[in-house]
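Translate structure to sequence.
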């Protein structure tokens, strides 16, 4: 089995940023919002890099059952690992208090939802886990590595007056209308590895590489995203912003770098 270097799909967004280095050169200074890594269909996960200069919409994603019924899609549980954050950068996950569906609709139409959200500071190195059904929003001034179920079903509740469709009926049908603590404390696994998040859809680790790191034969298709540094991954050169996929049965390999960090994710 071969180890494949993944292609990248670059998406401009109104809330995107020209400041995408070192993960993407962006010599044109485009407002890049997302970079998708093109993994195979052997792993039902999508990994993205997100670059924000402004708030994203207030949104929510459905669980599997609702997404299957209405979109013939997976639901969307996701996690964020913060790579870079401005001093005042924030994210919103969950609500400050329990509310009714009627109040959620009214607050979404009036903009009051911004005051109902639980906004928390975001710092480089933070991890946040966002199950489907959790109302959330990314603020500006962030670079984020996102791991999610392979789904693009998003319901917008509020979008700051931008000329885009809202999805209030679907949002209200799937939203959890109560507070939620999304922050995750890494678990030290030894050898420079930390467990960032684990759920029924994915297990995600952070690997710090200083020298040579031996990698065992993966039991499941696994994605390796270079978050910082440069060197060699299974004999292929890499730099920050590159990603690789190793299938089950791939021969054991090594990562060689003076000082690098990888996000590693697979199905649990």
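Result:
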């Amino acid at each position: 089995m071969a180890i494949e270097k993944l292609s990248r799909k670059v998406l401009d967004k109104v809330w995107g940023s020209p400041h995408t280095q070192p993960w993407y050169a962006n010599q044109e200074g485009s407002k890049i919002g997302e970079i998708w890594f093109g993994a195979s269909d052997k792993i039902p996960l999508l990994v993205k890099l997100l670059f924000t200069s402004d708030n994203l919409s207030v949104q929510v994603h459905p669980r599997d059952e609702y997404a299957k019924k209405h979109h013939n899609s997976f639901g969307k549980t996701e996690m964020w690992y913060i790579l870079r954050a401005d001093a005042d950068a924030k994210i919103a996950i969950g609500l400050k208090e329990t509310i009714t569906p009627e109040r959620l609709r009214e607050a979404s139409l009036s903009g009051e939802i911004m005051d109902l959200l639980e906004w928390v500071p975001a710092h480089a190195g933070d991890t946040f886990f966002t199950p489907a059904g959790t109302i959330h929003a990314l603020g500006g001034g962030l670079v984020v590595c996102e791991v999610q179920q392979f789904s693009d079903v998003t319901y917008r509740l509020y979008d700051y007056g931008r000329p885009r469709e809202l999805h209030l009926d679907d949002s209200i049908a799937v939203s959890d209308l109560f507070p939620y603590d999304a922050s995750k404390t890494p678990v030290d696994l030894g050898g420079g590895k930390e467990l960032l998040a684990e759920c029924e859809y994915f297990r995600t680790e952070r690997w710090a590489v200083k020298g040579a790191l031996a990698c065992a034969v993966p039991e499941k298709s696994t994605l390796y995203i270079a978050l910082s540094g440069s060197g060699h991954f299974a004999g292929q050169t890499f730099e920050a912003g590159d990603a690789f996929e190793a299938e089950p049965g791939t021969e054991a390999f090594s990562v060689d770098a003076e000082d690098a960090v990888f996000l590693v994710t697979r199905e649990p």
